[in-house]
# Entry
Amino acid sequence: MPERTRRDAAPAGRPAWARESDAARPRAGIGTGPGRLLVTLYAIFTIGATSRSAYQIATRFDEAPLPYLLSALAAAVYAGITVALVRGGEAARRTALAGCVTELVGVLAVGTWSVLDPVAFPDTTVWSTYGMGYLFIPLVLPVVGLLWLRRAEPAAD
Amino acid sequence: MFTPLTVALGVAALALAAWCGFAAYRDQPTKDWHFIGMAVVTVLALVQLVVGVVALAGGQEADEGTLVFVSYLLGCAAAIPAVAFLSLAERTRWGSATVAAGAFVLAVLQVRLHDVWSGTGA
# Structure
């Protein structure tokens, strides 16, 4: 309700450009409010997946090449989403959306693959068994991300 | 020496997560008392870092290797300061939720740290 009052009052008291920037604000705001929590979680998963896969690829790549490469892929996706969320703006929002879709497809595909063909996975990845080793957060995170980024979509007017 | 400290830090981190989660639930930003709580948990994490490094220097070995162990120790020490700064920038309930998430991650890291040190895990 206060929001509405402020907007109604704007045309009389403020120049047009000020209203313009008001309307544009949600676009830049994908990394604030609930977005701040999302940035934090993506940053944590970026650090976790990156250090884990880098260490595993460097020390024992031969033991389980597929899982380690998939972990590295997950790390890259997480890093991309984190950067996009921090940067903000419409282009970054679209990048983050694409990242979240990739992430969701990845966790579903790798999750199913790891359940059907455990032999291919001598060691686990971030996305094994739909992210069970990480409390299923890898499965929940892209869904929450997609919902948040859709909500932050610039208004049609 | 190391295990009691890990348990204490895990419990403290969970308490901080619950406290800040409650603040988020009540639609409140982090306040001075929350930051004092974060400072206490961070001091514990720094003590753990020192105790861990001293143990390594004294000839003890972490089950999963020195590099992994020290990385985890550094991550644990950095976790709360990082989310504390974020909650300074985010003066809404979401700042509190961010600290709660960081503290919860720290508690999970303590479980992993225990495995890395004594090899009860994978």
Q: What stands out?
A: The interface with chain B takes residues 32-37, 39-41, 44, 47, 51, 55, 135 of chain A (CB under 8 Å). Chain A has six helices and no strands. Residues 1-28 of chain A have pLDDT under 50 and may be disordered. Residues 25-150 of chain A form one domain.
